[in-house]
Amino acid sequence: MAVRVDLRLTDVVTTTDTQTPGAATSPAGTPALAVPTARGHRARDRRTHASRARHSGTPRPTAGARVKGVVVTLAGVFGIACVAWWLVAKIVGLSLVVVTTGSMTPTIPAGGIAVDHQEPAATLRPGMIVTVPKPDADLPVTHRIVRVDTVPGHPEARSLTLRGDANAIEDPNPYVVDHAGVVLAHAPRVGSLLVTVTSAPVRGLAVALVGLLVIWAFWPAGERTAPGARTRNDAAASTEATTGKP
Q1: Which pairs with CB-CB distance under 8 Å and at least 24 residues apart come from 45-49?
Q2: Residue 94, burial from CB neighbour count under 10 angstroms (0-12, 13-18, 19+)
Q3: Do both 74 and 139 map to the same domain?
Q4: Is residue 216 a part of any domain in this protein?
Q5: pLDDT tens, 74-101?
Q6: Statement to judge: residues 104 and 153 lie in one domain
Q7: Which of 23, 33, 35, 36 has its CA 20 to 30 A from that of 8?
Q8: Total domain count for the chain?
């Protein structure tokens, strides 16, 4: 079986007429041709690519452009997270409640935050922490259920007797509700931070910062040329000027 080897001129390295003692020769007595191996081809390709990268005129982003990219990316991730939370809260029925008093200490201290999920009153049981409207106040109350009673004539409603974990006595009046926010999770001190972040001065500052970020994101960024590119371009321009080529 014959094997045909097709050698291109660019892939063949010839030797000089002077043969090195001990070198391999062909049957005709001429020096053998050195054929580059696959490893040699890869090494040559790497050197070629490295040389092109060093001398190419491809602009490089400046440090300011890289910082801008990081900041814009983080802002985008934060915005997506906020939108995702809003959608989940609307679909699932979640809400955030900031506890402003210490009546639920030590479970939820003052300044803590609770995540509520709206559930029918018929599913409520003693021991649950719920958030329900307070008839004589604008803000709701978040306390633990002590007792659940039915309401005559309203099969879906329940009368809840509540008490704070830090209180010695129960709340003076029961709460009649059809639904209640059952606390699924809570964390200390996060509520105070949320109140500060959502205050009017901070919201105004946030709007201003977002506006500046948008302007900065679309502001043209400077670019720097790769090392050696300016020298190569200048040399080419000088050669054209000398030869008189346009």
Answers
A1: none
A2: middle
A3: no
A4: no
A5: 888 888 988 898 898 889 889 999 999 9
A6: yes
A7: 23
A8: 2
